[in-house]
Structure formats: C-alpha cells, structure tokens
Amino acid sequence: MESKLGIGLLGLGTVGSGVAEIILNPENRHPLVSDIELIGVAVRDKKRQRKISIPDQIITTDPLQIVDDPRIQIIVEVMGGLEPARSLIIRAIKNGKSIVTANKSVIARYGDEIASLANDNGVYVLIEAAVGGGIPIIEPIKQSLGGNQIKRVTGIINGTTNYILSRMEKEGAAFDKILKTAQELGYAEANPAADIEGLDAADKIAILSGLSFGGNINRADIPTQGINNLQSRDIDYAKRLGYQIKLLAISERIDSKESNKDSLPLAVRVQPTLISQEHPLAGVNGVNNAILIEGDPIGEVMFYGPGAGAGPTASAVVADILNIAGVKKLGGNGTQLDPLLAANSWRDCHLVGSDEIIQSNYIRLICEDSPGVIGKIGKVFGERNVSIESIVQFEANPLGAEIVVITHKVTQGQIKDSLNGIKQLDEIKEVAAHMGCL
Ligand code: NAP
Ligand code: HSE
After folding, report:
1. Measured from the CA of 309, which atom of ligand 1 is nearest?
2. Where are the alpha helices (DSSP H) in 25-158?
3. Mean pLDDT for all residues in the chain
4. Torsion angle of C-alpha atoms 286, 291, 292, 294, degrees rounded to 10
5. 405, 419 Cβ separation under 8 angstroms
6. DSSP H or E segment with residue 16
7. Of 126, 123, 83, whose CA–CA distance to 105 is shortest?
8. Which of 204, 239, 329, 379 is flagged as catalytic?
9. What is the pLDDT of residues 87-128, one digit of tens each?
10. How far apart are CA 117 and CA 113, in angstroms?
11. Which domains does the chain have, with CATH numbers?
12. Is 204 a catalytic residue?
C-alpha cells in the first residue's frame, strides 16, 4: 500500500483547527485528502480547550519535534507572528519539507529569502491562505494570469476591517463592540491592532505586488493608514455624497520622474478610501474580501469571497496541501519543481515616494462659518493646480461648520502642499480627515 503524505501542523487555533477538521474528515472531498495524514500538531498550551478532538499523543508543545520529524513531508505553519514561525519554516525547508503557510507577516518580510531557500532545497512554499482568506488569488495570479502585464491591483483584503466598516455603515454600530464580535468570530489577528491600523492589509498588498509585478518590494516603505482614526461622521458624509468607505490596498505601476530605469516604479498604499456606489468593490460587505486586477490583455478581473475565518482559510490551506500532494503523487519530489507552483522574483521593483501617488481625495475641514471661506479654500487649491470635483458644507452652526472637499486626481504632493496652505487660513480650525477616493 502506498504510504500517506505526512502533515505537521504548527498551530491549532482558528485556522489550524479548520485544517485539522478537513484532514480528519476526508469523506466526500477530493480523493487526495485521503492520501494525507496528520502526524503531529504543535501548540503553546496543551491544556487549552480545543474546538476539535485530536489524539493527545500527536500534540506537542515543542514545534521542533514536528519540524524535525522524518515522517512529515509538509509543514503547515498556522501559528502566526514573526518568530519562531520564520525560523521554524527555514529549519523545515532545510530538512527537505515543503511549507504551506497562512502567515502573511512572515511572507511579506522574508518571502524572497524563503522562496530562494525552498528552490535550493527542492521544496515548495505555498501561501494561498496568506491573502484573501478562502479566495483563490495567489495561484491564479501565478498561474492563470501569467500571460498578462498587470497594471493595477486594488483590494479589500482585510476581513476584520471590512466587517467593522460594513456594520458601522449599515447599523451605525459602535466600533469597539463590532471589533469584539470580529475577534469572537475568529476574523481578527492575535493583536487586532494589525487589522485596524492597516498593517495586515499592507503585508498582503506587499505579497500581491511581488507576485503581480514580479519583484519584491520593501514592506516597510508602504504608506499605511488604518481605520483606527476614522470617525462615524465621515462614514455618514460619504454616504450622503453617494460613497462607501472601505479600507483599500492599492498597488499600481506608474510613470515616475525618477531616473532608475532598471527597476519598475510602483505606487502602493493602504488607506481608507471612498468608493462610489457604482464601483465593482462597492458591494463587498461583511467579512468578504475582493481583489480587482487590471491587466493587459485581460482587462478587469475580480476575485471575491470570504476573507477570514476558520473554514474559508482552511479551505485555502488544504488546497495548497493538495497541490503539493498531487505533484508528489506524480513523482515530482526531486529538485525539479513545478515552475508555476514555485515562485521567485524575476525583476526589480521599488516604491515611489508617497508625494508621487496620484488619486482623488476626500478632505474634511472644520472651520468658522463665515462669508467667503469656501472661496478662500478654493483659491488655495487652485493655486496648487488642484481641481475640485465638489465642495459641500455640512453641520453649519454658530460654533462652526464642516466642509467636505472631493478633488479630481492629483499628486499627494499637491494635496500636502494645499493642506499646508489651508491650515494657514484664519477661518480653518482643523483638517479633520483626508482619505483617498475612487
Ligand atoms: P490563533 O487562533 O491565535 O492560533 C495560533 C495557534 O498557534 C494556537 O493554537 C497557538 O497555540 C499556536 N502557537 C502560537 N505560538 C506558538 C508557539 N510558539 N509554539 C507552539 N504553538 C504556538 O491564530 P489563527 O487565527 O489561527 O491564525 C494563524 C495564522 O493564520 C496567522 O498567521 C494569521 O495571520 C493567519 N490567518 C488567519 C486567518 C483567520 O481568519 N484567523 C485568515 C488568514 C490567515 P495555543 O492554542 O496553545 O495558544
Ligand atoms: N485578520 C485577517 C483579516 C485574517 O481580518 O483579514 C485574514 O487574513
């Protein structure tokens, strides 16, 4: 009888439990699921109450026992965090094991190093679950869209924040209460600041940029604004103006003024963004994610589905395990890797400075409700060549007024300069919000 493919799980939390559930219940799934066997599981606390029943003898608190076990061919890393996750992945690769991981923080920072090491050792590192939860997006970019020149990737790629924003918009529910529910549902990171400050989305857009444009980018360079400072009045004003607010991650190739011709210039950012009701991403609510890819010759293609949670994420993890199992079943377990499953950078990319990013903008100003103030604001923008799409006054009362400006597409350098000028006006009390707008 052919021996089964041994799986070692690092982590038995939200995602790990979902993965174990599938492996231990192969009925009515692809026959390859029956060809894999859970050999060992590492956790931090053996006494913790689990959602799934796992034989006690295969659970350990020493992850090295899993990573060094010769019966295991695939390590599934779903423990999260940078260390010891990164070191365990590296050790497992050196031990000749393939890796399946959902850990975007490790891959966004060390993905290239890990991919090279994997190639040198003739093993795979597959990361489908690291972006978009259950949405197949990593392998489609690597395999199905390989013939395209990608121009832009725009994504709602954090389930927790999309869940929070959708419920704030629809029910007017309070931020902290919804975040707590998102944590209970298993959507949020161990430290939810990673979600609400936009860091998780920045990890994910770094990964998507690398795959879409062929070159690694420096994760630390991505301008990142989360939803932690977003006020419910901005959601309300956006709605009144025909927009929704979403936390968007955008990566696009641009024509830069810079002289570095050997490296592809990319404008990348994560920020709360107003999107018009007609935009394809406008209907993406709750924990769902969507990634809109614009390429040549395909045009626009959008990937949509549940972006977090045990079941969807486990679905993506198991898909990767089965990809490796399929290749191994065909005998491809030497150093000849399937080039479409293996991924490496093939050119240099770099991020342009944030002043070069071109976009429309939503700006909310708090000011005195005095005659001529809108004219003065318009003049400051006009002097910087910033064209205004609309300017609306809300909440005018003796204490002051709020003015919302939507600009046409301009550089962030022009906007920064304009806001500096506006802050000098006597009537302006505060630039209270600045977001992107699609
Ligand atoms: P989680 O619920 O916090 O589970 C983490 C698991 O890892 C726990 O079982 C924990 O053990 C174990 N663990 C942590 N550090 C360990 C250590 N040093 N040694 C041994 N075991 C250790 O996290 P999760 O939500 O499943 O997320 C896991 C990974 O998947 C993260 O990288 C996350 O970003 C990613 N991810 C999560 C989702 C999602 O929807 N949750 C979606 C996509 C990707 P104990 O149980 O004993 O504490
Ligand atoms: N915390 C992440 C999110 C999990 O909410 O999107 C999925 O990567």
Report:
1. 40
2. 63-67, 85-94, 104-121, 138-139
3. 95
4. 170
5. no
6. helix 14-24
7. 83
8. 204
9. 999 999 999 999 999 999 999 999 999 999 999 999 999 999
10. 6
11. 5-135+310-347 (3.40.50.720), 138-307 (3.30.360.10), 357-437 (3.30.70.260)
12. yes
